[in-house]
Amino acid sequence: MLDLLAHLVSYRTGWLEPSIAFLMQKLRRSKSAIYDALHALKAHGFLDWLRRYEPTGREDRGPQLRQTSNAYRLALPAQALRCLGRLLQAPPLPEDVQHARELQANERAAHRASLPLVEGRTTGWGSSSLASGAPSRNVSPASRQNPRLRRMLRSKRTRAVS
To answer: N or C: which end of the chain has fewer CB within 10 A?
Structure first.
């Protein structure tokens, strides 16, 4: 039953709403067996549901609401999580992959160290002016020599600050 419910979940929307008749057909079990299985899953903390109703449209005597399919929610109880323990953790990286990542990090660090001071400040994900959304305070050598470009950069900084 739990396996079927896990396969029926719409992971895009999170909806899980099979009817009892659908579960009976798929599992080839009686109505009482389906109810027993659902209640056992609820008792152990793997499943919870919300009863849903829709109006019948009657204004006279008789039932005003009719039950529609329940909305179910799967869960992993704390005791089951403890039993699974390391099975749910990501496996450690193979040594060759870990070594390759370390080499790449060392190469990046050596490349950043070899860059001129101005370019070195703007490289990297965390210190980039694009990543932070703030205007760059670094002035390129070309803007130091060009007064028009320097005025333009200065006006952009004052607009961004105000």
So the answer is: C
